[in-house]
Amino acid sequence: MNKSQACSRASLEEMSAWTMGTRSLDKRGSFFKLIDTIASEIGELKQEMVQTDVSLENGLEPTEAHSMVRHKDDGYSEEKDVKTCPRDSGYDSLSNRLSILDRLLHTHPIWLQLSLSEEEAAEVLQSQPPGIFLVRKSTKMQKKVLSLRLPYEFGAPLKEFAIKESTYTFSLEGSGISFADLFRLIAFYCISRDVLPFTLKLPYAISTAKTEAQLEELAQLGLNFWSSPADNKPPNPPPPHRPLSSDGVCPASRQLCLINGVHSIKTRTPSELECSQTNGALCFINPLFLKVHSQDLSGGLKRPCTRTPNANGTERPRSPPPRPPPPAINSLHTSPQLSRTETPVSMPETVNHNKHGNVALLGTKPTPIPPPRLKKQASFLEAEGGAKTLTSSRPCHGRERELELGTAGSPGGAPPADAPGDCTRAQPASSESRSPWHGGRQRLSDMSISTSSSDSLEFDRSMPLLSYEADTNSSLEDYEGESDQETMAPPIKSKKKRNSSFVLPKLVKSQLRKMSGVFSSFMTPEKRMVRRIAELSRDKCTYFGCLVQDYVSFLQENKECHVSSTDMLQTIRQFMTQVKNYLSQSSELDPPIESLIPEDQIDVVLEKAMHKCILKPLKGHVEAMLKDFHMADGSWKQLKENLQLVRQRNPQELGVFAPTPDFVDVEKIKVKFMTMQKMYSPEKKVMLLLRVCKLIYTVMESNSGRMYGADDFLPVLTYVIAQCDMLELDTEIEYMMELLDPSLLHGEGGYYLTSAYGALSLIKNFQEEQAARLLSSETRDTLRQWHKRRTTNRTIPSVDDFQNYLRVAFQEVNSGCTGKTLLVRPYVTTEDVCQLCAEKFKVGDPEEYSLFLFVDETWQQLAEDTYPQKIKAELHSRPQPHIFHFVYKRVKNDPYGIIFQNGEEDLTTS
Amino acid sequence: MMAIRELKVCLLGDTGVGKSSIVCRFVQDHFDHNISPTIGASFMTKTVPCGNELHKFLIWDTAGQERFHSLAPMYYRGSAAAVIVYDITKQDSFHTLKKWVKELKEHGPENIVMAIAGNKCDLSDIREVPLKDAKEYAESIGAIVVETSAKNAINIEELFQGISRKIPPLDPHENGNNGAMKLGKQTTQTSRRCC
């Protein structure tokens, strides 16, 4: 075995040399660097590999002596290897193909216990074998922590590892490796220990479950799982030394654990290498490192483990029925996935994956492999070939070896059919067929699918790159602002946007971005989440879906329900805020959003999701309504007339004393504004507004190096907006102002939005201003109201506050007050509520009664056509909490009723 | 890690007194290129440590011309602080400053921190506004006052440090983002301009 390993290594080396050679011949210059980097990386890693072997035996032994028994070739005392087990249990799933990640996703109600206290966690873990873990939120640290059960030898029963959440990633404190979400983090630590004393272990029942259904069943138990019989212990050895699937396996499997050992150690390398990075945390997906890195692993060590099943499959104590994977089958399993991407084998998997959990994955719609994309991918691949080949040549080898085809020795010895080149080619395709994120998962699942870690790792290798690429792609698109409309159909787009010569720079750029932490492929879990929420919003079986669908269709069908454009937009904004709030509290999201999105980003992600599931379907309607409102109230006409006036003035008359954009620039700006109109997301619109402003600044500064403040900028902006002559801008600005996430209003977007609004107000009131040099009081009022709303502390109403209930007190002259909570939907009028009250409070003469609002020590009788729920919502959204009551009582008792009617109208129309 | 607290600061004052120069000086000295710069000088940000917090100033410049005064409420709404700038060589600008103070008192956020900056102190030989006047006035309204020179980078840092110190510490019950942006009375705003 050693011999063959050595051989294969040799052949690998040769192979890579060979591929590098050929590659470099036809590769563009820019690739050389990449290749070089990778090559040197491989070299380094190889060296380290050797070291790790040593350190495995020396360095690690002290801490893990209790369980980690290293074996040379002779070895077989495998029973005790704690490390192997989680992994092996994964392997065990060969038959059912549930990856560790799948298992984690399905069973998060068991191990993800954010509300658990330290004591409770200790209690749960007490009875568990070492390696079992929980994730909870530590109130002390205000962070999520990984609570890990330690073996007795460690003294303490458990240890907590803080989980660090940066803007885009999750990582363990002290580790340099970060992950896009919690599941991936945990999955990784099930395989590699990194900063942990040993790898995590899944509870026996979870790691041995054969089907998703079984997992779901376990998950149903939630926290009770830990105390239920379902949490059965493995049949043979008792907890401390967890039985491994690989128990008593032959030498081959010893190698396996060795790999594990190596693996765990190796994974640290990148972080070490990368310590210089900003916060020390290396992006998990840094393709250069990880790939090569794992690649190396697989390359060097794959051999033995490949063998494991072949030789010992039947001997595995725990492996259920016979399922002895004979070499042939095994290779069937692995090789198609590896290289024969287009084969059906991989497709079903995609579909399969879609079914469970990750519906929201980026590529989840079982992308029928859009030809354009594929092509692009191919070229990308080619371009990237240098890197690819370098790495993939090894994988190929692995496979060959598996297939027992790989004649150790010359690279050329590879069977023509499976020539490295093919391998390279095929790989991307395979990854393509299952979308980048699948890639991510795939990799982990592969680890469990096949006994050969090499396959999986190697397979994995191609993934990150692709996913980056796809990601960058999409994020760029976002940036271009166009994906707004068609988030659903990126493939065609991407084809349009890139050609092969374009690809690498973008790829590299994407990596640089990642490094700088500005843009990262970690956008993806976010997208995933957004998509999932959007799906949920269409599912009327969920409360959330109901809420959203009902609201959307209500708005579309009831054009008269809003008295003004502002009223309409503010109601929508409020609805979004409330739904966001509901979502962050509800358990309808599965998995919980905290597990996918770092905490400080949750609101951002939810906001995006709201845009998608509420604004997207409503955009057309809202636009039409805005136009109607402005037509009706004359402001459209007013703007139109004044715009003409302003356009006739020269810049100086408008107070402009800086260079102004010329015709060409104005055209450019118009194009941006036109693009803006196509967006539904207020944030993306604002992004475009910022670009317009940036362009204006550029023109103003025109290399003078002078910095212009508002004194100069605002007049120019006004001038430019007038030059653009787009009446629609008015509604655009209104849309943004009212619908933008209030938390963004103090920032740059808010500033320029305010300026644009101000500029438009000036234009709209140009005549008046000329006359009185004063803005109409009306405008000032609007400004005031807007800012009042914008700058309020967002005291967030609780879910029931905005749900369909209304607490109404019934006041009788002599009998005092009784209260009832009534079901009152948002658009039920006061009239209807009165009727309801008459019924509920058994009032004989309902015409004598009316609904009053008691607030700020005053009584306001509500007009029949007002909406109590809206009034309530408005009250809730006020900056300072107001104490208020809805009271159903006799009209005559209240002399103030009439007096305050005006006040009440304000309330509902503002 | 220290919590970052965003503080909206608005800049008021006549046109030409050097509002944006002050901000440019403040933001661009020790400019950290890692921090994403803003697109222009009308809106700038800078983060400074203060106690165990980080204060991120979101600085909103306003257009000082008379015709834009009516837009000012949009800019100072929700501000935690206002920097009101006058030119020590122009008595008129000190006059305008007083009007701004009055408007802020009437319509501005309740607990807004006011800082008065007498800019262009490098030109003290043609000074029209005595420092004593400014100090007395500032004292009467409870505002910070410094004479600055954006040109020579005098007292710029001090101006903002002074503001930082006067920002009340965050109420732990409040949302970090908005704690400093709390608005007082919302109801009194009228449509009249102050001046």
UniProtKB/TrEMBL annotation, chain A:
> What protein name does the entry list?
Ras and Rab interactor 2
- Does the keyword Cytoplasm belong to this entry? yes
Question: Which residue ranges does the record assign to the VPS9 domain?
Answer: 633-772
**Family note:** Belongs to the RIN (Ras interaction/interference) family.
The lineage's top-level taxon is Eukaryota
Gene Ontology molecular function, alphabetical: GTPase activator activity; guanyl-nucleotide exchange factor activity; small GTPase binding
Which Gene Ontology BP terms does the record give?
signal transduction; vesicle-mediated transport
Q: Which InterPro entries match?
A: RA_dom, RIN2_SH2, SH2, SH2_dom_sf, Ubiquitin-like_domsf, VPS9, Vps9-like, VPS9_dom_sf
Residues annotated as signal peptide: none
Q: Principal place where this protein is found?
A: cytoplasm
Q: Name one GO cellular component term.
A: cytosol
Coiled-coil-forming residues are none
Task: Report biased composition (Pro residues) as residue ranges.
Answer: 232-242, 319-328
- Return the Pfam families for the record: RA, RIN1, VPS9
Give the subcellular location: Cytoplasm
Which intervals carry biased composition (Polar residues)? 331-344
Keywords per UniProt: Cytoplasm, GTPase activation, SH2 domain
Query: According to the UniProt entry, which residue ranges have a biased composition of type Low complexity?
Result: 445-456
Residue ranges of the region described as Disordered: 228-247, 299-374, 386-456, 475-497
Report the residue ranges that make up the Ras-associating domain in this protein.
802-893
Q: Which residues form the SH2 domain?
A: 111-204
Source organism of the structure? Rousettus aegyptiacus (Egyptian fruit bat)
UniProtKB/TrEMBL annotation, chain B:
* Record field: compositional bias (Polar residues): 185-195
Q: For the region Disordered, give the residue spans.
A: 172-195
Task: Spell out the subcellular localization from the entry.
Answer: Cytoplasmic vesicle, Phagosome membrane; Early endosome
Q: Which GO terms describe its molecular function?
A: GTP binding; GTPase activity
Q: Which CDD domains match?
A: Rab5_related (cd01860)
Q: Does the keyword GTP-binding apply?
A: yes
User: Topology with regard to the membrane?
Assistant: Lipid-anchor
Question: What Pfam families does this protein's entry cite?
Answer: Ras (PF00071)
**Keywords annotated in UniProt:** Cytoplasmic vesicle, Endosome, GTP-binding, Lipoprotein, Membrane, Nucleotide-binding, Prenylation
**Cellular component annotations (GO), alphabetically ordered:** early endosome; phagocytic vesicle membrane
Q: Which family does it belong to?
A: Belongs to the small GTPase superfamily. Rab family.
Q: What is this protein called?
A: RAB31, member RAS oncogene family
